[in-house]
Amino acid sequence: MNCSVKLQLSLYIKAIKGIGQTGKIQPVVLPLVWFEESGAMEGEPLQTFYTQLVLMPSVLHYAQYVLLALGCVLLLIPIIHQIRSQEKCYLFWSSSKKGSKDKEAIQAYSESLMTSAPKGTVLQEARL
């Protein structure tokens, strides 16, 4: 593999109001430094450079999207499991449309708590 590097640094000069030294200068680009280097690479160093500079960045580019998708799936799994474990579930509350037997049992229990016990009846035994 042949490779070459060329670099030129230039300076742009123009007149600036308020600075007297640049009063009558026309805009111009002055080249300051020119650098050129070339070479050839073969064998193991070429394979190393290809792996590190071409292959790995492209693999990591696709890996970020794969990991993002995996994270989304892992976030959705518990949400779907929670929804399926309940008959009707809205994110922060459950629907009251469960079976009528459950509703009747809850209603009967609520009514039993509201009725007062006859005098002399022990409601709950206290233990120390």
TrEMBL record:
Compartmental location: Cell membrane; Membrane, Caveola
GO cellular component, one term: cytoplasm
Membrane topology category: Multi-pass membrane protein
Transmembrane parts of this sequence: 62-80
Highest taxon of source: Eukaryota
GO process annotations (BP): cholesterol efflux; cholesterol import; plasma lipoprotein particle clearance; recognition of apoptotic cell
Keyword Transmembrane helix: yes
Principal cellular location given in the protein's record: membrane
Transmembrane helix keyword on record: yes
Keywords assigned by UniProt, alphabetized: Cell membrane, Disulfide bond, Glycoprotein, Membrane, Receptor, Transmembrane, Transmembrane helix
Gene Ontology MF terms in the entry: lipid binding; low-density lipoprotein particle binding; scavenger receptor activity
Family: Belongs to the CD36 family.
Name by which UniProt lists this protein: Scavenger receptor class B member 1
Species this protein is from: Neomonachus schauinslandi
Highest classification ranks of the organism: Eukaryota, Metazoa, Chordata, Craniata, Vertebrata
Name of the encoding gene: SCARB1
